[in-house]
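Second opinion, please. Please look over this fold, written as tokens:

===
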Amino acid sequence: MQYKAESPEDYISQLPEERRKVISGIRQQILENLPEGFEEQMSYGMLGYVVPHSIYPKGYHVKPELPLPFINLASQKNFIALYHSGLYADPALLEWFTLEYPKHCKRKLDMGKSCVRFRSMDDIPYKLIAELTGKMTIQEWINLYEKNTKK
């Protein structure tokens, strides 16, 4: 679902109570573990954690006027979605995540290319999200991004 929000706080305030609690909890884990340099902002109508233009002036190759995305968090119609670009770009990180996930959740991993879907609000792997968030520095993400977009 798209929300018309000017800030992360505005976005969260528009969510139903159950979603507000979960999104706030995931956001807290991201903010506490996000490596230095990434910035939080609204991005694509979701909470976004990006490489700012001040660090990576080229921006996102599809839309250079936008900063390079890294993580997005959204309340969708039937689930909460965590989009982590590193999972899409780094096979080793994806393998680590898929092996760790069952240790943290009762439900089976529901995942697209870079989107992890949480359908049960009482089965959120907060500690795993915290660890995932801190696994890649801003420079490692930029290097991986450039390597994958040169193909």
Q: What stands out?
A: The chain has six helices and five strands. The two ends are 32 Å apart (CA to CA). The longest helix spans residues 17-33.
